[in-house]
# Entry
Amino acid sequence: MLVIEQGTYDAIVEHARKDHPDEACGVVAGVAGSDRGTRFVPMLNAAMSPTFYEFDSGDLFQLYKEMDERDEEPVVIYHSHTATEAYPSRTDINLAQEPGAHYVLVSTRDGADSPAYDGPVEFRSYRIVDGEVTEEEVRVVGSYEDTSEGEH
# Structure
């Protein structure tokens, strides 16, 4: 199960809406071994594409350097789908190289990018290990100390 703080959930959704019609992408880093993403890091989609995302290699190198210095790891790796459901594509599965990470997909296909940002979004999380995709429950909490709040 992915437990994610409301502020981080909102930031991921806002990034996906803002970058539409291109796919948005980023990482939520956290203390190594904690499974708690605490540092939201929106990244530039170097592909600038509505159907594909690619982290800028320099930005990604810098992020991993920072995570190493802070004893962090990528807890969540997220990106958006702008015209399809929030399910990993074959390309997404092939690119998944962090077996401990939660892979979050946000779909903005049904008007989530409208000027009022009032369209629905689909927010789903997966584990992807050795090409096998397993969907997991997402629980959104006010803080990690409060795990009894509502689920999305």
